[in-house]
């Protein structure tokens, strides 16, 4: 929603200012210029990226129109789930959660938290490392190193759409210049026309530069920034699971382990100690 609002503000400010200055909007409507700029940009996008990058970008772009799913409620759901799992381990031993982690969709614990279960990546990340804990063949330092490597891989993979969109935005001003040059060439080839008509051709040519810059910095560039912010948000889920499980491996009680996880969250979504404690108590009473 904010993306649409932002685009409306950009268009209103630019075109509204142009109208207030006495300009005529019809002179900015140059579909041929848009064809040259947009077509060249899309073509360069396909040339500069492999199939995986193109697919990842196409999959990521629709998410910019959605609000963040990483809310305080979701984080509390995650930490309550971790608390329940670790409490079961503490009371009944690591082998007691084997059935839960092998088929989380059938687990009575995981099924209480559909928001987490719906996220395949975080569920797999959690169950994989719980499985390693059950195996008992790795110490905390080895698991931490493996977690760091997996989170880094997730981050690098998530940056692919960011880089693709950012590079696309970087190229738009240059393609705008290309369109403007093509317009100047057309104008020079029509030098025998009356001055009034030549002026119109020159104005049309300059629109290419304007459109390239506007599309780059008003439309495409901000999308890359938004995708990057969403990537950082998604990484917090993994970090929360990481520090909670490592705290448990180092001997901390479940209540303290989830407190480690709470501390790594962004302040805007981080629940207070009492909020998390009350949520856990309510979950236990169900």
TrEMBL record:
All residue ranges annotated as the MotA/TolQ/ExbB proton channel domain in the record: 120-238
Compartments where found: Cell inner membrane
Membrane disposition: Multi-pass membrane protein
Keywords, alphabetical: Cell inner membrane, Cell membrane, Cell projection, Chemotaxis, Cilium, Flagellar rotation, Flagellum, Hydrogen ion transport, Ion transport, Membrane, Transmembrane, Transmembrane helix, Transport
Cross-referenced PROSITE patterns: MOTA (PS01307)
Transmembrane segments: 7-26, 32-49, 172-193, 199-227
Organism domain of life: Bacteria
Any Pfam family matching the protein: MotA_ExbB
Predominant location: membrane
InterPro entries in UniProt: Flag_MotA_CS, Flagellar_motor_stator_MotA, MotA-like, MotA_ExbB_proton_chnl, MotA_N
Occurrences of domain Motility protein A N-terminal (ranges): 4-93
Record family assignment: Belongs to the MotA family.
Protein name, per record: Flagellar motor protein MotA
The species this protein was found in: Noviherbaspirillum aridicola
Gene: motA
């Amino acid at each position: 929603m904010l993306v649409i609002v932002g685009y409306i503000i950009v268009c209103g400010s630019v075109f509204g200012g142009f109208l207030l200055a006495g300009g005529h909007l019809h002179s900015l409507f140059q579909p041929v210029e848009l064809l040259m700029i947009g077509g060249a940009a899309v073509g360069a996008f396909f040339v500069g990226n492999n199939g995986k990058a193109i697919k990842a970008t196409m999959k990521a772009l629709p998410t910019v129109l959605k609000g963040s799913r990483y809310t305080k409620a979701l984080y509390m759901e995650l930490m309550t789930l971790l608390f329940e799992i670790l409490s079961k381990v503490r009371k009944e031993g690591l082998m007691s959660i084997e059935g839960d982690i092998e088929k989380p969709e059938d687990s009575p614990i995981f099924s209480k938290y559909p928001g987490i279960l719906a996220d395949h990546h975080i569920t797999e990340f959690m169950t994989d490392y719980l499985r390693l804990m059950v195996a008992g063949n790795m110490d905390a330092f080895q698991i931490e190193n493996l977690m760091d490597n997996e989170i880094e891989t997730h981050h690098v993979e998530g940056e692919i759409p960011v880089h693709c969109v950012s590079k696309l935005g970087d190229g738009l001003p240059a393609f705008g210049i290309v369109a403007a040059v093509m317009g100047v060439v057309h104008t020079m080839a029509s030098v025998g026309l009356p001055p009034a008509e030549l002026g119109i051709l020159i104005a049309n040519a300059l629109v290419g530069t304007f459109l390239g810059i506007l599309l780059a910095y008003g439309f495409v560039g901000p999308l890359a920034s938004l995708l990057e912010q969403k990537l950082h948000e998604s990484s917090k889920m993994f970090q929360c699971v990481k520090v909670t499980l490592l705290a448990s491996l180092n001997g901390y009680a479940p209540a303290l382990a989830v407190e480690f996880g709470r501390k790594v969250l962004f302040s805007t979504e981080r629940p207070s100690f009492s909020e998390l404690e009350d949520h856990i108590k309510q979950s236990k009473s169900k």
